[in-house]
Amino acid sequence: MHFVQFTLNPPAAVVAAAYGSFSAPKEQEIVVARQGGALELLRPDEATGRLATVASTATFSCVRALCAVRPTGAATDDVAVASDAGTLTVLRFDAARGAWTRIHCETFGKTGCRRAVPGQYLAADPRGRAVMVAAVERTKLVYTLNRDAAGAPTISSPLEAHKARCVVFDVVALDVGFDNPCFAALELDYGDADADASGEAARDAEKVLTYYELDLGLNHVTRRWSEPVARTANVLAAAPGGGDGPSGVLVCGENWVAFKHEGHAEVRAPLPRRAGFPAARGLLATRVAAHRQRDLFFFLVQSELGDLYKVTLAWGAAGVTDVRVSVFDTLFPASALCITRNGLLYAAAEAGDHALFQFRGVGDGADDAAAGAVFDPSLGDDGPGAAKVAPAFRPAPLRNL
């Protein structure tokens, strides 16, 4: 006899969400991980304008991270899931059965949410060739995804990209076209601070943006590039690459949004601030979502207050020349944001009801508070420095959503 525990009211809080086409090609769907470990596949209903639950599966685990993976040559997306089971699981939705099918399940560590066991961060190469799973501290593993002679999906043994005495804040996969897969990580080395009892080394510790490259020919991961970033940086977003964008990373933190890339000078712009917001206080960016079409891409960055900012890049043959940050709308603070290609925004609330919004505009109004790139090296990363150049605005009812 086996007992299964279910609550009368299932948890509604969303831990993570990913957008893709999971049940059929060109479907607009969102997969969410609930706090109780349930995986739900949601699809917008055009008739009612609401999200319909296609399938809900209890995983009986604590899902830490998930992301969509589009295998090479496939027309639908798979879901990579990292949980407290100490495994990396790749799931594929079976539309005939209306349930998830396990494609891979690779064990990499002990059970539980531990700081040195991977699973807190998960990123997949846009071409579906590799997945990086990282821990809060030290450990990073890269898995190569491929197909065998019969066309069945395969997964490689993990390749290590560890760095001792290092805390990780975020991980994303770069869009590098068909070059070797590359991942970007926000890291802080605490080795010197751990050995210094005075606290000076802790104050002087630098947070860095690091590129890890997977050499598909040598089957090896190398630490390719590293450069200091703002100490308050905490969220990364990958810019489109190839012929659709400049590649690189958008680094979000307190007060500033910066574009960084290997061999490219930093270009940053301040976040517009609410009128009356204390200049001495920092304004933290907490969530970011990217929207990409054939000839258009932009980012939506949310602050800790719930304000949404639209971030666009002016780029060309010389690289990125300007970062424009404009006020888009004001929502509740969200734990996850997903933008669909048919003009919908899914916002999972940190507390309260989740919401599905429809775009009425793209935030190109002339009266929107907007900030451009600032190249003054004398301005620091703190609130007083950003307040000198950041435009002020007053929250208003929804205009673009």
Describe what this molecule looks like in 3D:
The structure is a single chain. With 401 residues, the protein is mainly beta. The protein is 4% helix and 49% strand. It has 3 helices and 31 strands. It has helices at 191-195, 200-204, 383-387; strands spanning 14-20, 29-34, 38-44, 51-58, 63-69, 78-83, 87-94, 99-107, 121-124, 130-134, 140-147, 153-155, 159-160, 166-173, 182-189, 207-215, 220-229, 235-238, 249-252, 256-261, 264-270, 273-274, 285-292, 297-303, 307-316, 319-330, 334-339, 344-349, 355-358, 370-371, 392-393. It is globular and about 65 Å long.
What is the structure about, briefly put?
This protein is mainly β. The chain is built from 3 helices and 31 strands.
Mean pLDDT: 90
> Low-confidence spans: pLDDT under 50, at least 5 residues?
none
Main pleated-sheet profile: 5 strands, antiparallel
Helical fraction equals: under 10%
Give me the secondary-structure category.
mainly beta
Termini separation comes to: 52 Å
By DSSP (H or I, 4+ residues per run), the number of helices equals 3
| Rg, alpha carbons | 21 Å
Taken as a percent bin, the fraction of beta residues is over 45%
What is the topological layout?
Elements: E1 14-20, E2 29-34, E3 38-44, E4 51-58, E5 63-69, E6 78-83, E7 87-94, E8 99-107, E9 121-124, E10 130-134, E11 140-147, E12 153-155, E13 159-160, E14 166-173, E15 182-189, H1 191-195, H2 200-204, E16 207-215, E17 220-229, E18 235-238, E19 249-252, E20 256-261, E21 264-270, E22 273-274, E23 285-292, E24 297-303, E25 307-316, E26 319-330, E27 334-339, E28 344-349, E29 355-358, E30 370-371, H3 383-387, E31 392-393
Parallel strand pairs: 22-31
Antiparallel strand pairs: 1-2, 2-3, 3-4, 5-6, 6-7, 7-8, 9-10, 10-11, 11-12, 11-13, 14-15, 15-16, 16-17, 18-19, 19-20, 20-21, 23-24, 24-25, 25-26, 26-30, 27-28, 28-29
